[in-house]
Specification:
Layout: H1 8-17, H2 26-37, E1 43-48, E2 73-75, E3 82-84, H3 88-92, E4 98-104, H4 110-119, H5 132-140, E5 150-153, E6 169-171, H6 189-210, H7 214-228, H8 239-242, H9 244-249, H10 258-272, E7 276-280, H11 290-314, E8 321-326, E9 330-331, E10 343-344, E11 348-354, E12 361-363, E13 365-366, E14 373-375, E15 378-379, H12 380-390, E16 399-400, E17 406-407
Parallel strand pairs: 1-7, 1-8, 4-12, 4-15, 5-6, 5-7
Antiparallel strand pairs: 2-3, 4-11, 8-11, 9-10, 13-14, 16-17
Helix pairs in contact: 6-7, 10-11
């Protein structure tokens, strides 16, 4: 355990005051200007397509080529841009999207690629960098809020150098999002209040003795958990009974309705004040039977993502909510002997919408067969820098983790000016 070099308050002051300008050019000025304009997003919803979706069979089709596969390409609201036939609703609202078609990395292993995509850093056995949601929670959480800053639906994370207070609250059962917050029958509110007071004293003594902020952090977590017990968004919730028509639009009848429930829960969480929601949607590791699997998965994604964007728009939340949909890598253009596609980090796609993002474009172009980037490659650190910038965070600054260590938000990434 590292000994804290600063008080938590002094660390925050230092992080706020620190800022380094690396060079003074017109491009850098433009990027900073874009960053200032993009500070309107107050929350982020990440739909993470675990396993790696095929870019060719979703948002970067290659019709009439040997690598194109059997799916047809359909026109979108963007001139000259086509999507797969199995995402028609997203195609019809493409003018509200920014599709990045040239994400590129060097990580073709699931675990390593997920670490890179979710943290913006290459895996490092000596240090565990925070995932995107933890960083947002660290910089933008409200300690007095009734809800956690970071919620993950269907995925568990390890701890990072930021500590447990900035990790996610994990929802495994969407219908009953916080079963562990219910009090045992013999534990009254009065008894709980006394126990929390005793815990706070113990944590304070621990922190003083070992010169660490961990005691204070654990006290804050306990207080927030107590407040969460009374938050409406964490009570048992039946989407089919509460919002049946909207639930149907989200895709309640598609693939057991998991993504429909998860996206609807994500909207409710953001509406209640959660800063970052990750929805984990797996099944995209299609080494065999790719086309049947992707067709089914795309039906869920088309209904869930399209309705999420519409729902946020209808509630006046889209301009302040950044929506991101991406996996850890793509799939090979070449179709293998099992009618599948294998891991392919060289070129893959992401879809963005909402706060801080310039919509109505497809950024970058891959070659005709989809095997290489033809124009405007986007690295994972640059992608992270863009999302952070859309959320109003300054990626040029030096920050300090709670243990006093210097921490950059990205591994040298710079915002993609065309997107913000």
């Amino acid at each position: 355990m590292f000994t804290s070099l600063f008080s938590r308050r002094s660390v925050l002051k230092s992080a706020t005051a620190a800022g380094i300008s690396f060079f003074n050019t017109s491009l850098w000025t433009a990027l900073l200007s874009a960053q200032t304009k993009a500070a309107g997003a107050k929350a982020c919803i990440l739909i993470f397509l675990e396993g790696g979706p095929s870019q060719i069979d979703t948002f970067d089709p290659k019709p009439s080529t040997p690598t194109g596969g059997p799916f047809e390409a359909i026109d979108t609201k963007l001139s000259g841009i086509q999507f797969s036939q199995h995402v028609p609703r997203l195609a019809a609202m493409a003018d509200q999207l920014a599709v990045v078609r040239t994400l590129s990395s060097e990580e073709g292993d699931h675990d390593r690629a997920q670490v890179l995509m979710l943290s913006g850093y290459q895996p490092n056995p000596r240090i565990q960098y925070p995932v995107f949601g933890s960083t947002v929670a660290w910089q933008q959480s409200d300690p007095a809020a009734d809800v956690p800053a970071f919620v993950s639906i269907g995925r568990r994370f390890g701890t990072s150098i930021l500590g447990p207070q900035f990790g996610p609250f994990v929802i495994e059962d969407i219908g009953n999002p916080a079963p562990n917050l219910a009090l045992p029958e013999d534990l009254t509110d009065a008894r709980l209040k006394r126990r929390l007071a005793a815990l706070e004293r113990f944590n304070a003594q621990f922190g003083q003795k070992f010169q660490t902020p961990l005691g204070t952090d654990l006290t804050e977590l306990a207080r927030r958990a107590d407040r969460m017990r009374h938050s409406e968004v964490f009570q048992p919730y039946d989407a089919a009974a509460s919002e049946p028509e909207l639930f149907e639009r989200y895709g309640s009848g598609i693939n057991d309705g998991y993504l429909a429930r998860a996206c609807l829960m994500a909207r409710r969480l953001v509406e209640s004040g959660v800063k970052f929601v990750e929805v984990n949607f797996g099944g995209w590791d299609t080494h065999d039977n790719n086309f049947n699997q992707v067709q089914d998965l795309s039906a869920s994604l088309d209904a869930g993502l399209a309705t999420l964007i519409e729902d946020l728009q209808e509630r006046g939340l889209l301009d302040q909510t950044l929506v991101c949909c991406v996996g850890e890598f793509g799939r090979t253009p070449k179709i293998n002997g099992d009618n599948g596609r294998d891991h392919f980090p060289n070129v893959f796609s992401a879809v963005l919408a909402g706060g801080g993002i310039k919509a109505g474009q497809a950024l970058g172009e891959s070659t005709e067969d989809g095997t290489e980037v033809k124009d405007r490659a986007v690295t994972i650190p640059d992608f992270h820098a863009t999302l952070f910038t859309a959320l109003g965070l300054d990626v040029t600054k030096d920050y300090f983790a709670p243990d006093g260590r210097l921490l950059k938000l990205t591994d040298g990434g710079k915002p993609v000016a065309e997107l913000i």
